[in-house]
Amino acid sequence: MKKILLFVLIGLSITCFAQNSDVIVIGNVHTPMPNYNADSLFKIMERIKPDIILHEIDGSYFTDDFKFKEPSKENEQNASEKYVAKHPAALLRPFEFEGRNEYRRAKGIKQSENPTMDLLDSLYTAGSLTKKQADIVAEYKRLTEQLNSFGYKSAKEFNNKRTDSISKLRQYYQHYKIRQVINERKEFAKRFVITTTNERVSYAEGYNRFCDFWDLRNQTMAKNIVTVVRNNPGKKIMVLTGYFHRYYLLEQLNKAKEKVNFTLKEFYE
């Protein structure tokens, strides 16, 4: 009986002393907009007082002591620099897929992305697609326009469940429905780009790799966030990401909460 009581007390002690971290994922518009800019983000930081700010860039953008190497026009960097100047104990860290740009060039994703979408637009405008294919492209364009419109509003407008659900649907169309259209059309299999490894990749294959990378990148970013949370118990951690990514990261982080002790919060809660 005494042994059982001892184990219970130990368990209670561990529970009491477990340090819960707060994670705040903030979807961002990267460049200044009429209703959202670096000052807007800085005000959010001042209200939350994060201990660690995670950026959607890889380690190559930082010096060895995690300062930004180059000036930037992006809201996240300018707000963070202002915040750290006022709160020197705060840490800046990357959480991006390391070597993202190099990976995309090596796979032909970067080279084929714009030409593929240009070809798709030309086929759509010319009326060359089947009705089913055209309907998919039209809905993708509608969702893209709707999602982009939130970027002209305040931060709360692109950091909520409704916008997340629209983003998820738009990305589903981009990475699954549009992928189907491209794979059905012979035009995309007959045009090619050359990768940085001298591989000849068709537009169709490049787009398939682009879609696969969407999952790989987001899942990797979520794992990187969880690693920071695990290594920094009891800290308030702000994650800055493009708002098109927010829904995916939140889904992955909600799954991770079962194994790692942290709470997901909105910045306006």
Describe this structure in words.
It is a single chain. This protein has 269 residues and is an alpha/beta fold. It has 2 domains: 127 residues, Cobalt-precorrin-4 Transmethylase, domain 1 (3-Layer(aba) Sandwich); 113 residues, no CATH class. It has 9 helices and 7 strands; from the N terminus they run αβαβαβααααββαβαβ. The strands form 2 sheets. It has a 5-stranded parallel sheet, with helices on both faces. Strands 4-5 form a two-stranded antiparallel ribbon. α3 links the parallel β2 and β3. The radius of gyration is 22 Å and the shape is globular.
Low-confidence blocks of residues = 1-17
* Mean pLDDT reading: 94
| Oligomeric category | single chain
CATH topology of the largest domain: Cobalt-precorrin-4 Transmethylase, domain 1
What spatial order of strands do you see in the largest sheet?
A: 3-2-6-1-7
* CATH first level of the largest domain: Alpha Beta
Biggest beta-sheet profile: 5 strands, parallel
What is the distance, rounded to the nearest whole angstrom, between the alpha carbons of the first and last residues? 45 Å
- Percentage of residues in DSSP E strands: 5-15%
Give the topology string: H per helix, E per strand.
HEHEHEHHHHEEHEHE
**How much helicity do the residues have?**
40-55%
Instruction: Report the total helices.
Output: 9
* Number of distinct beta strands: 7
Structural class, by secondary structure, is alpha/beta
Give me the CATH architecture of the largest domain, please.
Answer: 3-Layer(aba) Sandwich
Radius of gyration: 22 Å
Total discrete domains: 2
Q: Outline, from the CA principal axes?
A: globular
